[in-house]
Amino acid sequence: GAVVSQHPSRVICKSGTSVKIECRSLDFQATTMFWYRQFPKQSLMLMATSNEGSKATYEQGVEKDKFLINHASLTLSTLTVTSAHPEDSSFYICSARTGGNTEAFFGQGTRLTVV
Amino acid sequence: AQSVTQLGSHVSVSEGALVLLRCNYSSSVPPYLFWYVQYPNQGLQLLLKYTTGATLVKGINGFEAEFKKSETSFHLTKPSAHMSDAAEYFCAVRTNTGTASKLTFGTGTRLQVTL
After folding, report:
1. Whole-angstrom distance, CA of residue B90 vs CA of residue B45
2. What is the pLDDT at residue A39?
3. Stretch A57-85: mean pLDDT
4. Of A34, A43, A47, A59, which to mutate for an interface test with B (greatest number of B Cβ within 10 Å)?
5. Is A12 helix (H, G, I), strand (E, B) or coil?
6. For residue A113, how far is the Cα from the chain centroid?
7. Do A4 and B43 lie within an 8 Å CB cutoff?
8. What stretches of chain B adopt beta strand conformation (E)?
């Protein structure tokens, strides 16, 4: 199956700094990538959908200026958490797919801890 | 709008016993239905999916699910549980709306397998 690689798997940062998380499709071209946030013992909440070469579409309640998403190529999307605070600590997961009706493949997730 | 309800946030079975994880969905259009498994601090792995055609779907690791339109259900089963099945399981629904389609996840069911 297709592989989606997410990096880093774990990151600890100081409050007020920014953190970038990368999501790469290794063996396919991802026209669409999704970013999710997962709180402990809870489900995945979709944050935003990004299509290559265009601006991301954010879900209601997600601050686009805080969670910057860039999908500059067909194999790479990045999520930057700006001015991170402890309440941003969470598990962030990306997924990628080639087209509208194809299966989406998930990255292994990034555990962000803001101290 | 679509939604997913997973009954039972925690299910415990003995090794060798039947596994039954319940999922009910709501969708205004014919749904695509998915079951994913998540191990601690990892992303999601697809177990199986229903799109069209045969309503009994077989997946990896001996799991299967049956799409029942009349009951709006897509319950996940496995005849004999193994210790390695202990994980979090998510049911998801996706409406067939092309490039705008996205997954909606249930709240998850934690499966515990005991000796």
Report:
1. 10
2. 86
3. 94
4. A43
5. strand
6. 15
7. yes
8. 3-5, 10-14, 19-21, 24-26, 31-38, 44-50, 56-58, 64-68, 73-78, 87-95, 103-105, 109-114
- The neighbour count for residue B44, using CB atoms within 10 Å, is 28
Cβ-Cβ contacts under 8 Å, A32 against chain B:
99
Is pLDDT above 70 for A61?
A: yes
Provide the 3-class DSSP secondary structure of residue A71.
strand
Is residue A110 within 8 angstroms of chain B, CB to CB?
Answer: no
Residue position matching structure tokens 């997961």: A93
Query: A with B: how many residue pairs have Cβ under 8 Å apart?
Result: 55
Q: How confident is the model at residue B58 (pLDDT cuts 50, 70, 90)?
A: very high
Helix (H, G, I), strand (E, B), or coil: what is residue B20? strand
Q: Do A108 and B43 touch (CB under 8 A)?
A: yes
Q: Given this model, what pLDDT does residue A56 score?
A: 92
Instruction: Give how far B106 is from chain A: nearest CA, Å.
Output: 7
DSSP A41-67: TS-EEEEEEEETTSPPEEPTT--TTTE
| CA dist., res. A69 & res. B56, Å (int) | 38
Write out pLDDT tens, residues A9-50: 999 999 999 999 999 999 889 989 999 999 887 889 999 999
